[in-house]
Amino acid sequence: MTGTSPSDFAKRLDKTADDTEALLGRLLSDDILHDEIARPKRLMDAMRYSSLNGGKRLRPFLVVESAAVFGVPREAALLVGAALECIHCYSLIHDDLPAMDNSDLRRGRPTLHKQTDDATAILAGDGLLTLAFDIVTRDEIHRDANVRLLLTRALARCAGIGGMVGGQILDLAGEGRFGGNEPIDVARIQQMKTGALLRYGCIAGAILGQATKKEYQALDDYGRALGEAFQIADDLLDVEGDAAALGKPAGADAALGKTTFVTQLGIEGAKERVRDLLARADSAVSIFGERAAVLQAAARFVAERKS
């Protein structure tokens, strides 16, 4: 049992969600920045539609709480978390497109391409992706330019060809989109498509805190375990969850013919795997003592979530 009660954890999660929402609102305002020529209304409205008023903001929360282990100023961690959330929201816009998962519903309302059109959705995703790198390089994040460089490089690698984007194409290949019978490595797909951004939320705190090699590795191991637990919980929700709670149709993976942890391990096997991952996550950050209590609670939240 961690030293953080469920109610305290929920308050911290909600506080970070509120702070992230307010920060994203400012970052996505119509105010034109230096070197920008204009912020087209249709584009900004679309970016706001898919970024504001929704989500638990788990990824920014992981940045804030992993950074808090090292006493990093909350404002700096929130900026990095906002950059990460921009990447996450862009990925959801593009995942929902007809050429990808072809989803009509996201967070209980029409997906962006249904609300607007495919072209607007694609460009809104592009806008959020590039805005993320504007944010993560800002001077107020850290006085040391090398820290900002490391944050930026890590974000690019977790979001790009060796991370989320690469994982997405492997996931599509697993559905048979490109012909052939390529072997499906569900764990590898998860590490890249879903786990990489969650892992970034954890290692970003270590980078901000200029952690030792041992401390960085602890948060890296924690992030990998948490990322896999998140995906297995997601797979279980797709089978056992309620569409109203999920804010999207249940059974979508089965409809697309996806191979998941549940199809490979079975429901009980998947639940046992989550328990093993929780133990790994808990052990990884135990070196931080009581400072790790919120992170340990976060792993349990991920494993036990209902939406």
UniProtKB/TrEMBL annotation:
<dbReference type="GO" id="GO:0004337">
    <property type="term" value="F:(2E,6E)-farnesyl diphosphate synthase activity"/>
</dbReference>
<comment type="similarity">
    <text>Belongs to the FPP/GGPP synthase family.</text>
</comment>
<dbReference type="InterPro" id="IPR008949">
    <property type="entry name" value="Isoprenoid_synthase_dom_sf"/>
</dbReference>
<keyword id="KW-0460">Magnesium</keyword>
<protein>
    <submittedName>
        <fullName>Farnesyl diphosphate synthase</fullName>
        <ecNumber>2.5.1.1</ecNumber>
        <ecNumber>2.5.1.10</ecNumber>
    </submittedName>
</protein>
<dbReference type="InterPro" id="IPR000092">
    <property type="entry name" value="Polyprenyl_synt"/>
</dbReference>
<dbReference type="Pfam" id="PF00348">
    <property type="entry name" value="polyprenyl_synt"/>
</dbReference>
<dbReference type="InterPro" id="IPR053378">
    <property type="entry name" value="Prenyl_diphosphate_synthase"/>
</dbReference>
<keyword id="KW-0479">Metal-binding</keyword>
<keyword id="KW-0414">Isoprene biosynthesis</keyword>
<dbReference type="InterPro" id="IPR033749">
    <property type="entry name" value="Polyprenyl_synt_CS"/>
</dbReference>
<dbReference type="GO" id="GO:0004161">
    <property type="term" value="F:dimethylallyltranstransferase activity"/>
</dbReference>
<keyword id="KW-0808">Transferase</keyword>
